[in-house]
Design goal:
about 120 residues; mainly alpha
Length: about 120
């Protein structure tokens, strides 16, 4: 499963909350880091609970943040950054949908499905 990128550094947040210099928004980035920490710990818990499964957490927050904050170090190539964002969105959506579908079919009875559905 892929974590969230630095949401405080997306163009809309930089425009709204970044001031004249359009800096990244610290509050959104802190919320993103909290989410990623909780996601990582949940993946660890699921790996312990289901020993036959192997779930992996992929951190894209830090690599993308480094590219955003130091574009010259990475060739100042916006095409690479855009490609990474597109790949992230593709894999994140596919992983999320696949996880939900697998969870849905995991429950055999309609009563269990109703209880699972209420969680989300």
């Amino acid at each position: 499963m892929i974590g969230l990128p630095a949401l405080g550094c997306v163009p809309s947040q930089r425009t709204i909350k970044g001031g004249l210099l359009r800096n990244c928004s610290d509050s959104e980035n802190q919320a993103t880091m909290l989410f990623n920490t909780k996601l990582s710990s949940q993946i660890d818990a699921l790996n312990q609970k289901f020993s036959e499964a192997r779930l992996v957490y992929l951190d894209i927050y830090n690599p993308l943040l480094k590219m955003i904050l130091n574009p010259a170090k990475y060739g100042n190539n916006h095409i690479i950054l855009k490609l990474l964002v597109v790949l992230y969105l593709h894999f994140y959506l596919v992983d999320s949908l696949l996880f939900m579908v697998l969870q849905w079919f995991r429950f055999r009875s309609s009563k269990q499905r109703m209880l699972w559905h209420r969680k989300f």
